[in-house]
Specification:
Elements lengths: L4 E5 L7 H12 L4 E6 L5 H9 L5 H19 L5 H24 L3 H8 L1 H16 L4 E3 L19 H17 L3 E5 L2 E3 L5 E3 L5 H11 L4 E6 L20 E3 H9 L10 H7 L3 E5 L7 E5 L10 E14 L9 H11 L4 E6 L3 E6 L13 H8 L3 E14 L9 H8 L7 E4 L5 E7 L3 H13 L5
Parallel strand pairs: 1-2, 1-7, 2-4, 3-4, 7-9, 8-10
Antiparallel strand pairs: 5-6, 9-10, 11-13, 11-14, 12-13, 14-16, 15-16
Helix pairs in contact: 2-3, 2-5, 3-4, 4-5, 4-6, 7-8, 8-10, 9-10
Length: 454
């Protein structure tokens, strides 16, 4: 289909009947929006993750399932043919119940993914019914027919070429028929047909992958704020919306904690040069942010972001002095456990590293004990927690004078645990104590961004 726009709606955008109706208005007011990707209704994924943890007893399971049912029942109560829709949701919840019992015996990431995927399955089913009830030709599509991933349950890797060929076969013809196709974010399937997930917040990434495989002209991420702001508006009320961002700036923001976009979202968009729009489904008239390859305005300071609960791993060994290959040895161990190293700083006998161990669907840390064992075989290992990563994002930073002075003079009453600067001219990152993090963010925002034109 020509000029295809993909609209992704997050959890709060599909939280209840009224919110879903707003999404229907957003979709149908743009004749090019034909593919709709939805998250689970707000709060549902958290409840399902709790069930999948296997920690609930029978009464706890019933209580959670009743809460999940109530969220969907509110939507069903506004629909025609309520009995039919209630039966569909109850069938899904029967599977959820059985999986929760399995999880209480042995928790696995495979069971977690299957169980948690029901959030998106249910929300996409119900919003499809709202489209139909309002007279639109909409069709529910199981994204697992095209969203092929590997079998790393909990944070699966998307297999882009397979997704493209499967989409060409199953999804593009449906879009060409002119229907509105409604599908799920976050979930996929491996080559044996087992359900997988892309990690928490993964629906943005799903939309971008489908944008790439269906040759979309635009990807629209509809959420609960009118665009990307200079920082999280929930933490800093003075945050301001940004009208235009480059892919690089947006990717840095997402990577370093701006939850508004899943960190991988920009990857498919960059590969195909598809512009990404971010706006509020509740207030689309307020406008939003365009994320594009380039922008007219490239300020030195564009945004600040915060990522909480970081673990710092300090590795030291006297053998490092004058030795070669120490870093290679360390990194090969992290690679073996499929962990990506975020920040790195080195001294004569030690290396400090932070790991991005969050965002697994299970909510569990992905740093296994076995990794520490292997590291301890050749160096001393010390970990520090209770830290937050603060990132200042901008342009040409490593070649502009006064950048570091401006950043650190604004927060000179606070201890900075580690600094990373120079690898990219788009960011300056550092670690501070968790208890200081929001104050540091507010101070930086005030001094770097509140006088600037965003
Ligand atoms: P969705 O459920 O629609 O995917 P998310 O909760 O994942 O929504 O992302 C939207 C939230 O991201 C906002 O409510 C806001 O609190 C948070 N956020 C963090 N950083 C930013 C930022 N720089 N700009 C806008 N929102 C941000
Ligand atoms: N429902 C999933 C989550 O809460 C995916 C998403 O919303 O993007 O993480
Ligand atoms: Mg999100």
């Amino acid at each position: 289909m020509q000029n295809l726009d993909i609209a992704k709606f997050g959890g709060t955008s599909v939280a209840n009947y009224d919110a879903m109706s707003k999404c229907v208005e957003v979709v149908t007011s743009n004749k090019n929006t034909k593919l709709v990707v939805v998250s689970a209704c707000a709060g549902v994924t958290n409840l399902l993750v709790e069930l999948a943890s296997g920690a609930c007893d029978s009464a706890g399971r019933e209580e959670i399932i009743a809460k999940v049912f109530a969220i969907h029942k509110e939507i069903i109560s506004k629909l025609d043919n309520q009995e039919e829709h209630e039966a569909v949701i109850k069938n899904y919840l029967k599977v959820v119940h059985d999986l929760a019992i399995q999880a209480s015996m042995t928790r696995t990431d495979m069971i977690t993914d299957r169980l948690v995927s029901h959030g998106e399955l249910m929300s996409s089913y119900l919003i499809t019914q709202i489209f139909k009830q309002k007279g639109f030709d909409a069709e529910w599509f199981d994204v697992r027919r095209v969203m092929r991933t590997d079998s790393s349950y909990g944070k699966a890797v998307a297999l882009v070429e397979v997704i493209s060929s499967l989409s060409e076969e199953h999804l593009v013809p449906l879009l060409d028929s002119g229907k509105i196709v409604v599908t799920q974010g976050f979930i996929g399937a491996d080559s044996s047909g087992q359900t997988t997930t892309l990690g928490r917040g993964g629906s943005d990434y799903s939309a971008a992958l489908l944008g790439e495989s269906c040759h979309a002209q635009t990807i629209s991420i509809w959420t609960d704020v009118p665009g990307v702001y200079t920082t999280d508006p929930r933490l800093v009320p003075e945050a301001m919306p940004i009208s235009e961002l480059t892919y690089l700036e947006a990717a840095e923001m997402a990577t370093f904690g701006a939850k508004i976009l899943h960190p991988s979202t920009l990857v498919p968009a960059v590969r195909c040069g598809i512009p990404v729009y971010v706006g509020s489904s509740k207030a689309p008239e307020q406008g939003g942010t365009w994320v594009r390859p380039t922008t007219d305005y490239s300020p030195a300071f564009r945004a600040v972001a915060l990522r909480k609960s970081q673990t710092l791993i300090v590795l030291s060994s006297p053998k490092m002095v004058g030795a070669t290959g120490f870093l290679a040895q360390v990194f090969s161990i992290f690679a073996k456990y499929n962990l990506s190293v975020d920040l790195v700083s080195t001294s004569e006998v030690s290396i400090a590293i932070t790991i991005d161990a969050g965002s697994q669907t299970s909510g569990l840390s992905s740093i296994p004990e076995a990794l520490y064992h292997e590291l301890r075989e050749f160096c001393h290992v010390r970990t520090e927690s209770g830290l937050s990563l603060v990132a200042v994002i901008g342009n040409n930073m490593a070649r502009t004078s006064h950048i570091t002075a401006e950043v650190f003079s604004a927060i000179d009453n606070y201890a900075v645990r580690m600094i990373c600067y120079g690898a990219s001219s788009h960011n300056l990152c550092f670690l501070v104590g968790e208890e200081d993090a929001v104050d540091v963010l507010k101070l930086l925002h005030k001094s770097l961004l509140e006088s600037e034109k965003a």
